[in-house]
Protein 1
Amino acid sequence: MTHILVLHGPNLNLTGRREPEVYGRQTLADVDEAIGDFAAEHDCDVRILQSNHEGALIDALHDAIDWADGAVMNPGAFTHYSYALRDAVAAVPYPVVEVHMSAVAARERFRSRSVIAPVCLGQISGFGLLSYLLGIEAVLMRTEDDEA
Ligand code: DQA
């Protein structure tokens, strides 16, 4: 059984109500349900947390050190400036995939830069809730590769 931590950063609790033309009308509960279903189909155990606080996301990454095989994180706007979150990703031994619901490269210029992506396994952007499922798939494929 693969253990995957899923983190949603700031403002993602308002998904479904927040700028629906950008992020869609599905709520975070809908996203989490799809993640849970996908995890069950792929024999993996997910731990999901949303926080608007940088420190809480860092604590969650640290707390999963002896549990997680990988993580999928949507850091929200922290993506673009949080060196503390970047250092936390670099500090943990498991791979982290950065995901975004919107196509960040096609939006405002400041969103094109991620300070976290360079220490991640990769970045997936622009597929709405599917971005999370693709992120989990990437962690699973990487974990299987490592076991082979
Ligand atoms: C986001 C993109 C970020 O630029 C933004 O600050 C978010 C959401 C996304 O999922 O598309 O809060 O991470």
Protein 2
Amino acid sequence: MKQVVVTGTGLFTPENSISNDELVASYNTYVDMFNAKNASAIEKGELEAMTPSASDFIEKASGIKSRYVMDKAGILDPETMVPQIEERPNEAPSLQAEMAVKATQQALDEAGLEASDLDAVIVACANLQRAYPAISIEVQSLLGVEGFAFDMNVACSSATFGIQMGRDMVRSGSAKRVLMVNPEICTGHLNFRDRDSHFIFGDVCTAVILEDSETAKNKNGFEIIDTKLFSDFSNNIRNNFGFLNRTDAEKRDDKDKLFIQNGRKVFREVSPLVAQMITDHLAANNLQASGLRRMWLHQANRNMNNFIAKKVLGYEPDFDQQPTVLDEYANTSSAGSIIAFHKYKQDFKAGETGVICSFGAGYSAGSVIVRRAG
Ligand code: CO8
């Protein structure tokens, strides 16, 4: 059986960042405007007054301090509260494909490869900007890759599911070198007028290159020891946006056509499940949690990650063992655990082992055990 190795990772970070204070100021201005406009209905009890948001709640409940975004002005303008992203002509590269190419260049550099060395492209993310042609095929064309490409979506677990797909492809021989890339424009589908979730997401793109260790140029990559995926249907994180929305005009613009979650329930249900999944996955590979150098967990909630890591390890890990990027990037859906891996992998010594783990809507979860080669 071929040994598949991650030989390169890449990260594209948008230029603009929004702090909690900036986001909350915009939200609270909107709240004041809404309550003033509807003062009489609120007074009569026909409408509920909106409640302000608070930066200290956001940081305490989630660990998020800021987020990078593709458009800052439109999100912060209380009149719009939507990123303003101009539609491009068909002849121009789409925004997601452009982000993907930028992240890929970095991954190729680390792998010591040219784009023409790749023969398969997977775009794996929670939100795809169009139905077809596949964004991945556009990325393939922009990079000049001969072979095949496809898009896939398992929400926050798209990257780990994509890694398993890529690994299986290399092992079976259906591809030699796979690019798995995660262009996440989460702010396009976030309701910035919803107090419960307006602070959660940011935009970013990550890239991972998977290839056969025998032919890899980078001999210091990360061997994939094993992958494990899990899914179990739940409505607790849901977005009803889809191609049938136009067939029911009355409900087309309802709030459920954007991200909605029952965050408390997700926290309670998913955290123990993920901790057990990692524990079982390690055991199935005859590995001890005590031998883990690091856990690169999905970046949704700092407290959730602390709970999971503590359950797996048996003690509260420090930043080095369980790094976070939530403070700077917020939740970037499928890209979160890959940002953490990208930023905090260089100090690994040959033979050291870690786990990349994602979890989210579906429910879905993925665990990837890696060991530094070399
Ligand atoms: N400011 C001030 N107070 C607030 C705010 C706010 N913004 N929001 C809520 N509160 C209040 C509530 O009203 C409540 O008050 P009270 O106690 O008086 O009723 C109190 O704070 C507590 O509210 P919650 O119970 O909601 O707060 P939690 O402590 O549970 O924290 C979190 C909320 C941070 C959302 C938390 O529940 C969480 O992170 N849960 C895990 C969620 C998770 O992991 N989800 C995964 C989703 S990601 C995914 O799957 C990808 C989807 C695809 C991407 C889509 C892109 C858009």
